[in-house]
Amino acid sequence: MDFEEQRRISRNLKYLRTLNRYTQNELAEILNISPTIYYRYESLSLMPPIDFFYNLSRLYRIPIDVIFETDKSKFTYYVSLFRTSSKQLTRLLKAYDSLTVMSQGRLLEYAAILLEYEKDQNAKGLLAHPLIPEKKPYCKRRT
């Protein structure tokens, strides 16, 4: 790993920490390491063990390889993508858990129908949705 890659990974670690509103001390405590060691890991003056990166990826709910992304635009894109997906998934799971067993079954059946529909539509090159009616052209009323 060259110096520029190390610097980018160091910036990624700091970005993730500040994005999630942790101080270095708080994160060190969560990861069960001393604040000095965490500082050295974040600055990459000491190369962290792989379990450090694994624990961060679990904490931030991102794949571990995102931490090592050296392209800044790709890194921020992946982080925002996984943060959004994680929030949507949490909302979906909460909604699912609040349903009755019968409604959960119906929802799973409907999801299977939607997946099959989208698979067929993608194969045909169409992007229409079965529940959203096509928009009619706007016409002004004559008065």
Q: From the helix content, strand content and strand pairing, which structural class follows?
A: mainly alpha
Query: What is the mean predicted local confidence, pLDDT?
Result: 84
C-alpha Rg, in Å?
A: 23 Å
The helix content, as a percent range, equals: 55-70%
Number of domains: 1
Helical element count? 7
Outline, from the CA principal axes?
Answer: elongated
**Terminal residue distance:** 73 Å
- Biggest sheet overview: none
Report the uncertain regions: 130-138
Series of secondary-structure elements, N-terminal to C-terminal: HHHHHHH
Beta-strand percentage?
Answer: under 5%
Annotation, overall tally of beta strands: 0
Report on this structure.
It contains 7 helices and no strands. It has 143 residues and is mainly alpha-helical. The protein has one domain (3-124). The longest helix has 27 residues, at 72-98. The radius of gyration is 23 Å and the shape is elongated.
Summarize the structure.
The protein is an all-alpha fold and 143 residues long.
